[in-house]
Amino acid sequence: MATEKKVTAIKNTPKHLLGIQNLSVLEAREILTEAKSFIKLNRGSSKKLDVLRGKTQINLFFEPSTRTQSSFDLAGKRLGADVMTMNMGNSALKKGETLIDTAMTLNAMHPDIIVIRHQDSGAPNLLSQKVNCTVINAGDGRREHPTQALLDALTIINRKGNIEGLKIAICGDILHSRVARSNIYLMNMLGAEVNVIAPKTLMPKGIDNLGVKSFTDMKKGLDGCDIVMMLRLQNERMQGSFLPSKREYYEFFGLTPEKLKFAKKDALLMHPGPMNRGVEIDTKLADDINVSLVKEQVELGVAVRMACLKLYCK
Ligand code: NCD
Predict the structure, then answer these.
(1) For residue 135, how far is its CA from the centre of ligand 1 (angstroms)?
(2) Ligand 1 in contact with 68 (CB < 6 A)?
(3) Is the pLDDT of residue 292 over 60?
(4) pTM of the model
């Protein structure tokens, strides 16, 4: 009997995951479906598979990271890959080497996957043109953070059953946030209605062209929302003064139990981390297991990254 080959949406597309913007809805759904299958495995006592046995995965982190880096590290190891994580603060970059030279050096060692986080928007795209292996974007500048949006989507689906028809608010430093951009693309693609809420100085011009409604007032922006995603103030991407003071920011844009009441009664709260408690979010609310999905986001992040590694590394 002839064996039927599984036809997947990702099979014939380029083998890099650079952003949600160039992902089809079929591809996004395929990643989410694959990721679901890893949730149970990750909760069990035996977590190791050999899907990527023999493959070499290099994690190239040019910016600080706790969640994303450890998550990609674990994901690769659980799939059986040989994983090497490089914190580029200690690399030849300090001696003046360019991203391209670093890429060529690593490429000569025949990796199968490079996961890259970089402070410059577009760095993963550039890298993907210079190496022979799969490139996965783990966050580039203020452009995109595709695996964060995918793990956010999986977390919502896990709790609410579906994304279609939900109203999702993304609040805070929209201007500098790659998480906001990737989530806007993905949540829209999966059929949600998206509100963005920020002070005028942190709201990108032309944001409405991305298919969202923009608000500078939490009460109006949160009205009727099922999900409230809070963002960190990206101080490292700010030159000059965008805000009068952190205290004032908290008063108008920090999520408190009182402000959460503007959203739906059963609204759930998310944050990609790291959180600035008392700046964008009330510290008790952040830990309130009845409303906060923060820990679940971290947990499901590993499953999503396993799915991406498996599907993109051919
Ligand atoms: C986010 C990032 O790096 O863009 N963090 C993360 O990946 N969990 C958000 C942030 O740094 O604020």
Answers:
(1) 19
(2) yes
(3) yes
(4) 0.94
